[in-house]
Amino acid sequence: MEEELIEYLSQFAHENRVELFNEKIQQRTNHVTLILEDIYQAQNTSAAIRTCDCFGIQNVHVIENTNEFNVYKDITLGSSNWLNINKYNEEKNNTKACFDSLKKKGYKIVATSPLQHHPSLFDFNIDEKVAIVFGNELYGISDIAKQEADEFITIPMYGFTESFNISVSAALCLSEISNRVRESSIDWKLTQEEQNKVLIKWYKHSIKQGKKLAKEFKKNYK
After folding, report:
1. 78 burial via Cβ count (<10 Å: 0-12, 13-18, 19+)
2. Does any domain span residue 194?
């Protein structure tokens, strides 16, 4: 039914939009994903979201232990509309719930560290699916995140400042890993089922009364 729904919804979109969606869906990936743990500055969250869209990262995982997820629309420029934002805010330990869920899906949880004795971002093994976690602006990732992470990497730095801003760190990591993944022989693209779900989301968002049209189609589908 999903393919039929996509064909139906595409009739209400401009031909250029249909071509754009078909082009961009081939560049989306779930091989790399981003975890934002308890970020309190909306501009950092917003910048990271925008970066994910730019690099074709389809899923972002937001952990809300004490800080609520917010975005600045003038920073995201609508990029959050094209991504899947997965929130974790209903458990006693949302960080562990997020990590456990991703590990069950085959992801390796990787945390960035300012300590230079950890492996470099540029030497990082990209063969496995990877979820990169970034923590609170003031305290970094939580103790439970440090305990549950599978691996740590560091971004080489040569100045006096000990760390990058979170949004900058996310951009550097996603740029390096995303580009390496795309140049590799890894099967990094979305599966057909994943593509269908994303395309439906995009069409429902971008056409007038898209959600209503999709609901009516499903109701009448035989």
Report:
1. exposed
2. no
d(CA 32, CA 128): 9
At residue 72's C-alpha, the angle toward residues 164 and 176, to 5°, is 35
Domain count, the chain: 2
Distances from the Cα of 215 to the Cα of 200, 210, 212, angstroms = 11, 9, 5
96-128 burial, b at 16+ Cβ within 10 Å, e below that, comes to: bebbeebeeeebbbbbbbeeeeeeebeebebee
Domain of 148 in residue numbering reads as: 31-188
The rounded distance, in Å, linking the Cα atoms of 17 and 19 is: 5
Q: What is the pLDDT of residues 199-217, one digit of tens each?
A: 999 999 999 998 999 888 8
pLDDT tens profile 2-38: 999 999 899 999 999 999 999 999 999 999 999 999 8
Rounded to two decimals, the pTM is 0.92
Contact in structure between 82 and 202 (CB atoms under 8 Å)? yes
User: Residue 163 corresponds to which tokens in the numbers above?
Assistant: 């760390």
